[in-house]
Amino acid sequence: RLGLERADTAEKALTVIVDLLEKYGQGGNCMESHMVFTYHNSFLIADRKEAWVLETSGKYWAAEKVEGDVRNISNQLSITTKIDREHPELKEYAKSKGWWDGKKEFDFAATYSYVNTARMTTSRGRYCEGYKLLNKHKGFITSEIMMEILRDKKSGINMEGGFMTTGSMVSVLPQQPNLPCIHYFTGTPDPAR
Prior knowledge:
The structure is a single chain. This protein has helices at residues 2-6, 10-24, 90-96, 108-112, 126-136, 143-151; strands at 42-46, 51-57, 60-65, 85-86, 169-172, 182-185. The protein is an alpha+beta fold. The longest helix has 15 residues, at 10-24. The chain is globular and about 45 Å long.
């Protein structure tokens, strides 16, 4: 929200977020229960002209400018070797922890998580299923199709049970500045309602 308030482009919003991350950090429970379970965040940041994916691990982060028709995020890191902006100490910190040797190509998701990035878009899981659904409709995605994807329970995108989807949003951002942007939000945690 602060990125939206303080910036007029997607890339400037990314800068606002990483500056706040550097100053204040992040963390805390990911649910309101007493279970101690934390995770870090991923963001899709878009304006009429460009979109970015920002993924974080503690104070460290990587950002990828979206190029192509579709891009999704889920509850795992997904930026691999295409890193367009990064925390200035991202790679040095990974080396100091023994996570990366500094010789092979740097892969953010593989280095900062337990994800097997070679199987990320082929194994069953929310990220993979979202990737498949978006690519199935590539070139023909409407707000209605996006809402249908976000309602999909079989894929795990619309989660039920202990970890529930807390909300969904679909935005239509026309490139023509004379057309209005339209934003749809769910009124309940379950986008299928």
